[in-house]
Amino acid sequence: IFSKMEQSNRLYEWLNTAGLAQYYPNFVKEGIDENNFTQLSIQDYSKFKITQLPDRKKLFTLISVLKQERQSRETTPLDRANPYMPYHDRSARPAAPATAAPPQQSAPQVPLYQAPIMAPPTAPSPAYAGLKRIRVVVRKRPLNRKEISKQQADIVTIDSDDTISIHEPKIKVDLTKYVERHRFRFDQVFDQDVGNEQIYRCTSYPLVESIFRGGKATCFAYGQTGSGKTYTMMGKGGDSVGMYALAGQDIFNMLRSPQYSHLHATVSFFEIYGGKLFDLLDGRKKLQALEDAHQNVCIAGLKEVDVDNTETLLALIDVGNRARSTGSTGANADSSRSHAILQICLKNMSGKPSGKFSFIDLAGSERAADTSDNNRQTRMEGAEINKSLLALKECIRALDLQHAHLPFRGSKLTMVLKDSFVGDARTVMIANVSPNSGSSENTL
Fold first, then answer.
1. Per-residue pLDDT of the chain (444 residues; tens, 9 = 90+)
2. Nearest 5°: CA angle at 297, between 327 and 342?
3. What contacts 24+ positions apart, CB below 8 Å, involve 370-378?
4. Listed residue (361, 339, 436, 365) closest to 141, CA to CA
5. Of 255, 312, 310, nearest to 281 (Cα)?
6. Cα-based distances in Å from 439 to 20, 56, 366, 431
7. What distance in Å separates the CA atoms of residue 433 and residue 206, rounded to the nearest whole number?
8. Separation of alpha carbons 14 and 292, rounded Å
9. What beta strand segments (E) does 255-375 contain?
10. Could you tell me the pTM of the whole model?
11. 190-to-11, 45, 164, 336 alpha-carbon distances in Å
12. DSSP letters of 61-78?
């Protein structure tokens, strides 16, 4: 009985932290406790009468954070009642009533969505040491106006928090139409209603602290042309920001703490176009990627700018994006034709690197059939893009299988990102997928 009461107490505190305490009786009524709470999928939310989109987003974020905490292999105890707080003795915590009625709170709790992106700067928590070296998540975008006007169907469904299905339209030999279902499992799957901030919390946010321990963190945005990669990284301006600004905000907040007063941040922004490197902050100056005597890859001539606030960071990114190579393809009228790499590097007083966070907005992957109507230059660009993406896939495969040899020299992209795959490095790949029926082959 005590165990059930304790689990009920933890469940209530989780929901209360996320601003969902009013739904506590519904969870108790359905027999949900600490053990099976994180197994809930998006389709289960309606059982607990959670129909409002803001509340569904809060619940999705809460479950995602709890799942990450459970996957951590760190032996340091964490407070399971509130995964965002350090461990405290539970003996001083009052027991929750055995009935379904939630206990009265003497002081209002701050809802999860109102809390800061990162807690006040403290010493890096060792809880993140148990994170997987590489995680792959999938993000589904909504149908756009062009696809809706063409009456294209939404063929992508989210089955659970880590499972996605693609319903591919096909035609038999006798011209009978049918749909073939393909199911895939990833570390995490995000529906079209999930915003950039929630995705940041579940993907890049846990990696920010690692660079203050001298580690390397990398965030990729991958997908076909027009699937939402640049939106994921940049947002669309105003209140909608992307991974760049959210991570920069947390990094600069931590740098303002006394314990990191010996560190400062520099930003570099360059692109890889046609197998060549160009500095986006220095008038597209051509760069060289060279290896030193210790086989460390250095980019000769790369401009680095000291940055201490998010506004300056976004201004530099805007300058770089205006210089980035774009073009029109059969799949997108304004397609990114290069891999854009933004690096936020932490350095000590002597200028020695202490940690680095790299954000890579990959060029859109395309099939040869999608570029058949374009000129020779566009087709050559597509071939070079696909070659580099194939080399990146092989590096990630070798890393996941823990091979002794990693094929870094397969392309300029993997050569430049060599230090993102070795040593104390953590990587997250955000795969963006288009849900329209016309993109089924690309999505698969």
1. 434 444 457 888 888 878 888 888 888 888 888 888 888 888 788 888 888 877 887 888 888 878 877 765 443 443 434 443 333 333 333 444 444 444 444 333 333 333 333 333 333 344 444 567 888 899 998 888 888 888 888 888 898 888 999 998 888 888 888 888 899 999 999 998 888 888 998 898 888 888 988 889 999 888 888 888 888 888 876 667 889 999 999 999 999 988 888 999 999 999 988 888 899 998 889 998 887 777 778 888 899 999 989 899 989 988 888 887 664 444 444 456 788 899 999 998 888 888 899 999 888 765 555 544 456 666 677 677 778 888 888 887 777 777 777 777 778 888 888 877 777 788 898 999 888 888 788 787
2. 40
3. 370/225, 370/329, 370/330, 370/331, 370/442, 371/329, 371/330, 372/330, 373/330, 374/328, 374/329, 374/330, 378/327, 378/328, 378/329, 378/337
4. 436
5. 312
6. 37, 28, 10, 15
7. 23
8. 50
9. 264-273, 276-279, 285-291, 297-300, 305-307, 326-327, 335-336, 339-347, 353-361
10. 0.68
11. 23, 15, 9, 23
12. HHHHHHHHHHH----S--
* Spatial contact of 302 and 287, defined as CB atoms under 8 Å apart: yes
Which residue's entry shows tokens 């040899």? 405
Greatest Cα-to-Cα distance within the chain, rounded to the nearest angstrom:
73
3-state secondary structure of 267: strand
β-strand partners of 332:
none
Q: Which amino acid is at 378?
A: T
3-state class (DSSP) for residue 416: helix
Of how many residues is the chain composed?
444
Q: How many other C-beta atoms can be found within 10 angstroms of the C-beta atom of residue 116?
A: 10
Of the candidates 268, 292, 263, which has an alpha carbon nearest to the alpha carbon of residue 278?
268
Phi, psi of 118 (to 5 degrees): -135, 145
Which residue(s) pair with 268 in the sheet? 343
